[in-house]
Amino acid sequence: MNMSKAQFEKLIKDLEQFARQHPNQYKFRVKLLANVGYAYVIFLIVFLIGLSISSTYFGLFFPLQSSSSSINIFYIGFAAIPFTFATIILMSLKTYFSKPKGIEMNRSNAPKLFQFIDDLTSTLKAPKCDHLLLTAELNAGVVQLPSFLMFQENYLLLGLPLMFTLSLEQFRAVVAHELGHLSNKHSKQRSQIYLIRQTWYQVWEKLQVTSKGSTFLINIFLNWYAPFLYAYSFVLARSDEYEADRYAVEITGTKNIAEALISLEINSRYLTNHFWKDLYKRSHQQNLTPNTVYTNLLNSLSTDFSIENKLKFLDLALDSNTNYTDTHPCLSERLTNIGYDPLDQGDLIVPESSQTNAAQSLFFNSDLESYINHFNAQWQSKISVQWYAWYQESQELQMRIEHLERQTKNASLTIDKALELASLILDFKGKEEAISKFRVVLDIDPKNSEANYAIGNIFLEQGDEQGVSHMEIAMEEDYTKVVSGCEILRSFMRQTRNFKAADFYRDRGNRHYQLLLLDQEERSIIKAQDNFIPHNLANNVLKSLSNKLSDFSQMQEAYIVQKDLKYFPEKPLYVLGIVRKKILYDEYAEERDRELFHALYSDLEFIKELHIVHLNLSKWNLKRVLSRIPKSKIRLY
Fold first, then answer.
1. Under a CB-based contact definition with an 8 Å cutoff, are residues 196 and 37 in contact?
2. Disulfide-capable partner of 226 in 204, 206, 306, 316 (CB 3.0 to 4.6 Å)?
3. Residue 304 — very low, low, confident or very high, per pLDDT cuts 50/70/90?
4. How many helices (H) and strands (E) does the chain have?
5. What distance in Å separates the CA atoms of residue 130 and residue 122, rounded to the nearest whole number?
6. What is the C-alpha to C-alpha distance for residues 104 and 421, in angstroms, rounded to an integer?
7. Regarding beta strands 574-580 and 152-159, do their DSSP bridges make them parallel or antiparallel, or are they unpaired?
């Protein structure tokens, strides 16, 4: 995108304010913008085909020779150019919408569920869903895909884990929310806008990967158009989330949708922070892929985990802000929108678990067991190869622990090896044993960011305040640890009821996150207009770089510089510009380039923060700029 992330977020904030103040004007703008894309493409194709026809006409009826039978070959040949452009543009607009995956449900195998959906569909006056899929996700959703002409296929996705966490009425509220997106109360225009947005965004992403000079007419347009369309429709999508929540309130009441949202948030955090982490650690000792993953997952969801963890997860969720990477607003804003207060006389309250969950209410026990077995087998099949690779790697790492521990008996380890041993001990033997190993690292280097971060995290998880100073040192020494460090400190401060400090760390983390986005953007884009400075690499590093590049026979020239950075200049970014020897009529040029870049990044790992630029494909002035930086040219043998 030509629009930066900071500009994108500012645009969304401005649009949200405009949409609240002038809703009708805003909807008109969105509709107009949604149709601009198609209007541009139609104009472009008509223009190009018209140019091709005109050129052919001149070639046939206005020959240069005096003889009336002669044909102007120049015009005929030129006619093929705009026609080819029009064809390429049409081909670039091909989009493929992958169909959602899950167990296809039908009325014969789930009569209660279909009756349940039918009742809600009728109440909401929503179109019937063409497909009802049972998935393994802790979520629910609707997906609309183009079918034939202007028709669409509606998919309703229901996660079995979600059904295990909710009562029947809470689940009814969630499904009412999802069907609300398809309801006749929602404008058909909005569905069309979402489809247009999805189509154009796919086209834009595809062109970023496979862009050729022949698609520049549409690529230039989309670099401007796609961010604006996404931003305008993003605001509309977010408002629809609020509206769908209100539909759920109308159908099931405020309490049910609120408790469903809270339960979803709590259980999502539990699965991420506990269940999946604990599961993957089993690969340290177990070589066979687990075959009852979803049986265990569903049991853990339906069995109450500690009320302390629930309150902790809910507290953190309510303290989180809405971000601009998801159209779903944060939990606190959604609860406020429906008028629900999660506090009871100043204390947080969490929903009580129902004795009978939605899955048990809507499925026969025998069918339910078969669905769980299906997801067990599916997960096992999908992950089995990777699981064995993890097991093999774990065995090697545990042998590495034994090797390093033997070395400690004879002599002190270097700081790198001491840090490696402490990190491995933390992964394989637990926190208590790791603390002493990280202290060894801090004895050598008291400000080591990795050791301070790890030991600070351990202490803070244990409720020990001495972790605060360690985490502060880690964040001071390594700016990439500030966001996660602030989140850990925020959680600790809220658990100790130091809300002022928690707010400080939350705001600090949010501010730093914005800087990281700007930094990421600054480091990911290299252009001739950037400021570059000499690399200042040590002679031995420069010699190694020269030797590595000389090993590639296709390497013709190479230049290395530093980019003069605005954000976090203490962490240098090295830019390596390469010129590959040209091969005439090389139909495998792209494949060779991919292989070359893969090999270069692999061989040059000793230079941290390296951005490689293919100067054959860049604008000619970038090479000129790099070559003018003192000592930038690398000697090749």
1. yes
2. 204
3. low
4. 24, 10
5. 15
6. 49
7. unpaired
